[in-house]
Protein 1
Amino acid sequence: MHEMSITRSMLEITAAQMEANGIHSLKKLKVRIGELTAVEPDVLRFCFDIAIKGTPFEGAALEIEEVPLGGKCRICATEFKITAFENRCPKCGSNEIERTSGHELDIISLEGD
Ligand SMILES: [Zn+2]
């Protein structure tokens, strides 16, 4: 499962960050997931709950911020949200589009003691 391996690597990074910040018990983990990562937030939450059982992370909450696929026009610099049906600049109609967001898979913050 795609989401389970993502959860595992997220928890590895979390463990390293907790150690660096002197946090011993995790309360909340906040992550940012881009639309292009094909991660289902509900599935990720499910995997997270399974993965943290019996670990020092048990009981922690997962907060997910979803990032839509964003684009920027190379011609007129307009920034907009790309949809599956619209891959052109809404302002000048150019298809010289640079993808600016949607690949995110980041830990934004973690809370704990
Ligand atoms: Zn444009």
Protein 2
Amino acid sequence: MTVLIDCHSHLTAPEFDADRGAVVDRARAAGVAQIALVGQDDRENLQVLAAAEAEPAFLPFLGLHPDRFADRHPLPDPGLVEAVAAQIRQRAGAIRGIGEVGLDRWVSQDEDRREAQADAFAQLIGLANELDLPLNVHSRSAGRRTIDLLIERGARRVLLHAFDGKASHALRGVEAGFLFSIPPSLVRSPQKRKLVKALPLEALALESDSPVLGPTREERNEPANLTLTVRAIAEIKGIGEAEVCGRTTENARRLFRLDG
Ligand SMILES: [Zn+2]
């Protein structure tokens, strides 16, 4: 059986504190050999690094989530982007990439917040270019702008996670060589089905986004559910599950430069 790669998860989340080891065991049993762990701010980035040191299946990504600029939070300390950038520089040799980063115009409706969010994203895109690291990118209600900004800033190694925009915008990303990781919520999302239909297999990868975006809204999601995404992609594309496994893993390996 081809191994699978979960390109985006939050397994450091407190939802997994009671049984993280069992979750990873179930992932392995389901064929999920490697799991990207993304950090959302300087504090969580440290948890990501510690978890990856203890568990070789984890691929560490350090980032700054755009929801740190949400209207509901106090505006982050102006030094936060610099602090995260310093963490990334310091650990550049030990991490797999930069993320979670991106744009979220749903949680930030205020124009000043949106501007601060876009500035932070642009800075971290620049850092990814400089260090030649892949970006693990969030976009919500900002599909077109996210793709535009990445292209405009010359980003080369990009994973768009759980992209919620239109397929036409995604296709411009495909042209730029970006990958799109598809979560298990594909089984219940008409928008994700459209996206999978429109994008070529060369542009697809798998993710869980654990603990969210599972096959049902109510249940905690986990990496073992990638098998459900594989089945759904195979059915939508009218191809075999083995081909979906092989191609998505190859795509992720190429982007993250993992040994095959
Ligand atoms: Zn995420």
